Amino acid sequence: MQSKKRYYFHGDVVDGSTQVYCAQHDDMVDVAHFYDMEIHPPSRLSDYDRYLRSRKAWNRRNSPLRQHYSRPTTARNIFA
């Protein structure tokens, strides 16, 4: 059986790294990325709201995300 891929919320610290997941760019970035307005300009959703949206999708009962992904309950997030 194949193990599930790790699911990251916006702002999750990457396991074993100092990088953080940015959902807006779908990439692993340094924390400074979130404070550079040229790289990460404000959008209609704040970083905290984007984190909450990821969390809400993950927590939905019978979320299809859970069929293909896993997320540790101890995951660290800079916006939580």
Q: Could you explain the architecture of this structure?
A:
The structure is a single chain. The chain is of the alpha+beta class. It has 2 helices and 4 strands. The chain has helices at 47-59, 65-68; strands spanning 5-6, 20-22, 27-29, 69-70. The strands form 2 sheets. The protein has a two-stranded parallel ribbon. It has a two-stranded antiparallel sheet with strand order 2-3.
What percentage of amino acids are in beta strands?
5-15%
Strand order of the largest sheet: 1-4
Mean pLDDT: 88
Secondary structure tally, helices: 2
Structural class of the secondary elements? Answer: alpha+beta
Low-confidence stretches: none
**How would you sum up the major sheet?**
2 strands, parallel
Helix amount: 10-25%
Shape: globular
DSSP strand count: 4
Amino-to-carboxy terminus distance: 33 Å
Radius of gyration: 13 Å
Series of secondary-structure elements, N-terminal to C-terminal: EEEHHE
Write the layout of secondary structure elements.
Layout: E1 5-6, E2 20-22, E3 27-29, H1 47-59, H2 65-68, E4 69-70
Parallel strand pairs: 1-4
Antiparallel strand pairs: 2-3
Produce a short descriptive summary.
With 80 residues, the protein is an alpha+beta fold.
Defining traits:
80 residues, alpha+beta, two-stranded antiparallel ribbon, 2 helices, globular
